[in-house]
Structures are given as structure tokens and as C-alpha cells.
Amino acid sequence: MSSIRPGSPAAYWLALPATLWMMAAVVVPVGMIVWVSFWGGRAFSPESPLSLDNYQRFFANRTYMALVLETLRHTATMMLICGVLGYCIAYFLVVKVRSPAWRTVLFLAFVIPFWTSALIRAIAWVPFLGVNGVINQALLALGLADEPVEIFLYSRTGISLAQVPLYTLMASGPVVYMLAQIPPALREAAMTLKAEPVTVFRRVIFPLTLPGVVIGQVLVFLNVMADFATVQTIGGNKIALLPNLVINFYEGAQIRAAAVVAVLLMLCMLAGVAAALRVVDVRRLGAA
Amino acid sequence: MMDGTTYASGRARAARRPLLDHRARSRLTAWVLGTLTVGFLLYQWLPILTLSLLSFSGPTGGTTFPMNGVSLHWYRELWDASIMNDFKPPLGRSFLLAIACAVTTCLLSVASAQAMRGRFRGHGLFFYLILLGIMAPGLLVGFGFALVCRILGIETAWNTTAFLVHVSWTLPFGFLAMLAIFNRFDPKLEEAALTLGASRWTAFRRITLPIVLPGVIGSLLFGFSLSYDEFARSMFTTGADITLPLAVMAQLDRQLTPELYAIGAATTVTSLLAILACTFALWGLRRAQRR
To answer: How many separate domains does chain A show?
Structure first.
């Protein structure tokens, strides 16, 4: 018995507002993008005939196709960096830090920036990356470079530098959650049975945290794929990835082309999530 | 043949006596991972701190070092702003919007989480529907919503359309926070109240709600901070009267000045204050409950 009876009509009424809200604000708009991407003709109206013209126009352009690959490559790099970093940090915080006070302090230092503006955090990289930026000043002062390096601002390196701290938490959080669920006795049992620490990690700890790793990777994947703001802030107008193309088309009043790019972005994301779900049954997480 | 034997015996010796014993190796791992973690934390915080430092640079200070003196010049500049870049109205809008989102998120997540406990038919689908708000990127949601508005002829504005879309982003976080709290919740407490003759509503109000209050505060924090900082969704759904992140981006497109650093430092402090207020509320709650 609880304050709500299982299967009671009250549950439906309680769920109704959120259901309507999410339908109106997420499901219908996303469906609308798909619909609009098939609109043929010249006028922007629901009476337009449906056609594949918009897609044909997009796929005929080599530059755009290269951009798709470029975006996937950049995303894969970020997943690798954030994944490895995130796992190491999670492992250190949960397993290696013994004092609860230190763990709390380090954990807060790790998490708090997530609640501050990602846009401001991206802008904060600008004084570092310029030709006269902090990184170049440091390199010159240390004698590691003879003249300012120009690869930072308006470059993919700069974008990656700014994105890694934004998304490492997403890769790390689920792993922290999974690591904290592992009973210490399990480790001790494996150690008592004379397993090497590396073997314990490889055969016991890592498989148990795998769902966390996969969820973290999905989060990084989805967010990096769609992050146009950091790219715009650091890359200026010189670098564009797929999500920036949506904005460019939208601002150029090429709504249907923007819809096509958005659908492609969506398809990439769905494929990524589907692949992840094949590796891990996410629904079992709640039971773990 | 000869090489093979030496290799094999060498490997046997290595297996018998490893380079370091377990404890030393474990300590070495801890050091390596610890250095990495602290290094990452520095890497994460340094830009934010640098930005704050540079916002105090002198009137002739540029966007990077040297600071050319220390002053509150850029903050004063922010205060008596010109018409072109007056950040005060956007700040006010962002703040009101964030408060509205916090309250709405809180109410909807409590209702949704309570509904989930009712295990109604289709509650699995309902769970995924709400989680879609996290999974669907702001770019797609915002763009799609702009299309809907265009087709239906709805005027976009910060306090109508942007509010609707912001809550779809903040709700899943509050919902997950509430579910996490309910998972640790002991239903026996409710049972006791019901056995003693309380109605279900009274049991919820007097027993359940006070116990899950940390989740309620968490959902308020998520609602406030995520809406306050939201950029992608706002970009498509805000209309002419823009919110703070949009004003910041517009200024960045025009020119990067230390004024932008000042606004960055100020909003970061606002976010930190929101976190601090919630942490204190949680701490006070825990103390009150222990008594």
C-alpha cells in the first residue's frame, strides 16, 4: 500500500500533464522536421507535394557529404578522449579515494561546472586560444615555441580543447554510478582467489561498469553531434560541423534544406543509440 | 631453439617475481589516476577563473593578458549600458523564465514520479517519453518547434513558447531526481499513515512529501539552472525580446570585450549561488529530520 494505488485512475491524471507537455514540445516538433524535409515545390506550406528533391539536392553536394564524415570523426574523437578521461576520474573518485570528505570535495569540483552556462565556459576558452592567448604566452615563456602557434583559435584543436571539459562529466557520471554499486566483497573475493589486479579489473570490474560506459558514450555522442554553440564560439565562421549547417540554412531562410540536415543528424543519432542498446540492455540498469 | 628457451625461462621468472608487489602497484595506479583527476579539474576550472580575473582588468585591458590594471570598469560599463548592449532586460527575462521553469518542473516531476509509482498501463512508455527530453538535442527540439510555430502562425516569445520548450528540457532531470528519491523511500511509512486512517491525499501531503523534499529541491535546482543557461532551444523559440544567453552570443558576434567576461563571471556566480542555496536547504532539511 502506498499513497497511490497501483493502476489507479489517479496515476493517469497525474501523468497526463507531463505527457501532453512532452508531446507538444518534443514529439510533435521532431515529427514536424521529418515532414517538412519531404516538402517539394516552392512555397513553404503544408499543401506542398511530398518529394525527395531536398534530399537529392543535399546528397549531390560533395562538400556536405564530407561535412557528415568530418562531424562523425570529430564526435568519435571526443567520445574516445572523454570516455578514457571520464573512466579514469570515476575510478579514482570511487575506488581510490578513501576519505569521504576528500571524495565529496573532488566530486563537487568535478560536478559544479555542469550547472553553469556551457556558453560562458566556451567563451572562457577564447582568452586562452588566441595568437596572444594564454597558451601561446605560456609556450613562449617556457621556450617551447619560438613564435605564437596559430592552430588554437578558429581550429578543430581549439574546439576539442573547449569541448572535452564540457562532456567528460557525461561520460563519467554513469560510470561513477555503476562503480559505486559494486560491493567491495566482490573485489576481495577475486583477490583471495589470487587473481592479478589487472585481471580483476578486466574480468570483474570493467564488465560490471560496461552499461555505465555505454550510457556515457551515448550522452557524449548525442551532445557533441548537436553542439553548434561551442563550434560557433571557438571556430568562428571558419569551422562548421553538421549542426552549424542546420543553423546556416535556417538563417538563410532555406528551411527545407535545414530540415534535411536535421533529419540526417537525427538518423545518425538514432543509429548510435540503437548500436549502444545492442551492447547493453539499459532497462536492466534500474534493477542493478 | 636456444632463443626460445631463454624467452620461456625469462617469462617464468617474471611471473614468479613481478616488478612491483600488489600494494606498490595499487599505490602507483592511485597516483597516476589522482594526478590525471587533479589535472583535469585544473583544466576544467582554469578558464572560468581566468575569465573572472580578466573581467576585473583596467579600462584599457583587452580580452587576454596583460590586464592593464585592476578596476571595476567593465562591471560599471555593464551597469550603465548603451541601448545596443543592455544586458539588464535579458537578465531579468532569463531570471523570471528560470523561476517559472523551476516551479513548473518541480510540480510536473512530483506528479510524474508519483504517477510512475501507480504503475499505470503504459508507464514504461511514459518513462521513455519523458527521457526523450534529455535525449533529443536542443537544436532539433528548438528547430522543430520553430517550424510548428511557423506553420500554425504562432508568435514566439520568451514567456510563452520558450517557456514551453525549456520545461521539456528541465523536466526529465527533475523527474529522474524524484524517481531516485522514491527508490529509496520506505512505503511502510505511508502504510502506517493509511492504517491510522489518513486519506491517501493526507498521507501524501503529510508523510510522503516531507520525506521526498530533497528530490523536490533537486528538481527546483535543475529547473532553474538548466533554463537559465539554455541557448539552443531559446535561439529558435524566443522571438524579439531575447534572454541572457542569446544576448551574450549576439554580443560575441559583434565584438568580444571584457564586458562579456564581466557578464560571464556574474552569471557563473548566479549559478553558483543557486547551487549553494539548494545545498544549504538540503543540509538544513537533513538536520531538521535528524532531530
So the answer is: 1
Residue B105 has pLDDT above 90, yes or no: yes
Residues of the domain holding A66: 62-287
The answer to whether the CB atoms of B171 and A21 lie below 8 A apart is: yes
pLDDT band (50, 70, 90) for residue B37? very high
A102: Cβ contacts below 8 Å, ≥ 6 apart: none
Q: Ranked by mean pLDDT, which of A41-55, A65-79, A226-240, B179-193 comes out on top?
A: A65-79
Instruction: Give the pTM.
Output: 0.83
Contacts of A259 in chain B (CB under 8 A): 143, 147
Question: Are the beta carbons of A29 and B143 separated by less than 8 Å?
Answer: yes
- Whats the size of chain B, residue-wise? 291
Lowest mean pLDDT among A223-227, A264-268, B9-13, B65-69: B9-13
- Using a CB–CB cutoff of 8 Å, tell me whether B256 touches chain A: yes
Average of per-residue pLDDT across B11-22: 56
**C-alpha closest to that of B102 among B11, B227, B194:** B227
Kindly provide the ipTM of the predicted complex, given to two decimals: 0.84
Across the interface, whether the CB atoms of B190 and A46 are under 8 A apart is answered: no
Residue A224 banded pLDDT, cuts 50, 70, 90: very high
Q: What is the DSSP string of A120-155?
A: HHHHTTHHHHSTTSHHHHHHHHTTS-SS---SSTTS
Q: How far apart are CA B145 and CA B156, in angstroms?
A: 10
Q: Is A154 left (phi over 0), alpha (psi -120 to 50) or beta?
A: left
Classify residue A28: in a domain, yes or no.
no
pLDDT band at A45 (very low <50, low <70, confident <90, very high): confident
Name the residue with higher pLDDT: B109 or B199.
B109
**CATH class assigned to B85-254:** mainly alpha
**Phi, psi at B184, each rounded to 5°:** -95, 5
- Mean pLDDT for chain B overall: 83
User: Does B40 sit within 8 Å of A165, measured CB to CB?
Assistant: yes
Query: Which residue of A36, A48, A117, A176 to mutate against B (max B Cβ within 10 Å)?
Result: A117
From-to residues of CATH 1.10.3720.10 in chain B: 85-254
Closest-CA distance, A61 to chain B, in angstroms, reads 22
CATH of the domain at A180: 1.10.3720.10
Q: What pLDDT does residue B2 have?
A: 43
Listing DSSP states for chain A in one string gives: --SS-TT-HHHHHHHHHHHHHHIIIIIHHHHHHHHHHTB-SSS-STTSPB-SHHHHHHHT-HHHHHHHHHHHHHHHHHHHHHHHHHHHHHHIIIII---HHHHHHHHHHHHGGGGS-HHHHHHTTHHHHSTTSHHHHHHHHTTS-SS---SSTTSHHHHHHHHHHHHHHHHHHHHHHHHHHS-HHHHHHHHHTT--HHHHIIIIIHHHHHHHHHHHHHHHHHHHHH--HHHHHHHTTT---HHHHHHHHHHTT-HHHHHHHHHHHHHHHHHHHHHHHHH--GGGGGG-
The average confidence (pLDDT) of chain A is 84
